[in-house]
Amino acid sequence: MGCATSTEITPEQEQHICKVMVKEMMLICVDPALNTPEQIRIPAPGQFDMLKNAAVKLRRSATEAAAPVSTAEGGGIVAAMKSGFSTMSGAAGQGAAAVLGKLADAFDAAVAKVEAPFSTIAADVVAEKKEDIADVLCTHIIVAEVPDAAILCRAKPGEVSDFLIGQAARSIATQVRPRIEQAIQAHAGLKAWNAVIESYNAACAKLPALNMGVTVDISDYICEQTVIAIGRRMAEEEIAIRSSSDPAAKAQTCPDVFRKVFRGEPLVYKDRKTVDRSVTRTIQ
Fold it and tell me: Which of 134, 142, 170, 135 minimizes the C-alpha distance to 19?
């Protein structure tokens, strides 16, 4: 009969060990992800494509407005514009075309001013607010529930990050927003976005046929997308650690147990005792 230290553990004990090691993995990945803010990029909101298309739509309508009455009359933007200019179709068409063309030019210019600064907003905010973001992430990781830790830690590399960060992005974003809101509001990307939205909504108010106005909580969007992007970076770190020849090299506590968990090696009672003695962070 083997000694107690080599006895295989119960499923409950395995779950406890794996939960601690899963959280340890994520805590290890936080700093490397935040230390490379230039790699944290977020896409522009879906409404941005609508703004781009608005300029195209306006130019098409300008062309239609300048066309002869027989081919340009109808509904939509052109009809709305002509009715506001003159009962003389020729003058109305030229006037509508001129206004629509100027609106299209204004949209193009405003959109162009958004793309470059918005593309760096997540990286810049992370660089400025790294400590605040790290604090929120670490707190979230420490208190998170991991009901299937034993399964998760043996899943495909990257899935720990997806579960603890990616799938919780909405909740994490809510927690992190008060800490980074000021940096978001001060960023040139947000100011450019607000300017183009104001221009678009003003045009929609004058031309109801153009489209509906845009309403989006852009700060909320930036926060959630930034968390998702950080989660992707953490997943890259997780994959690198789990794919390395020695995963234990990055472990901050219980390196031998860390290696066994992520290599799928059998756990024994001694590993439970090691975890209970050695974990210095408050991971429950």
Answer: 142
